[in-house]
Amino acid sequence: MLRIVLFIVTASFVPCAHAAQVRVQNPCAENTWLNVTLSTEIGRSVGSVTVEALTNLGVPFQGSEQGIHSIRNTVTGDDALEVISDREMRAYGWCYRLNGVEPDLFPDQVFVQSDADVIDWFFGFAHYKDGNWVTYCTPTQTIRPAYICSRN
Questions:
Q1: Alpha helices in 57-100 (DSSP H)
Q2: Number of neighbouring beta carbons within 10 Å of residue 50
Q3: Counting Cβ atoms within 10 Å, is residue 148 exposed (0-12), middle (13-18) or buried (19+)?
């Protein structure tokens, strides 16, 4: 009887191996650059799982668990700002969804919860017009700006 109780207590503290799917969308086309299922533990952050997937596969990226700045040499910094006029611009960067939902949190603050979890990364933009941010994380492939798409 004591062995059974000890096994149950011990087993409850051992992290269970699970899997999460990580996909990275091509910024300028419908295809994906990456689609991998990674063995992981429930409770790991989206950022941690993403960094591990990119690192293990040798995909060039800039960023950390807190956020991804560039994948496969996408634009960053001032190059990621498209000034359309003195009242309008677009700011580009990597956005993610977990199971189809875009959380309003950094990827190190959102956690894998099940084997069915899918992490989708896509290059998007926030649109600023007439003093207001009117969109956030609109996929770049919806407009395919030449200065970005000619690079990829």
A1: none
A2: 28
A3: buried
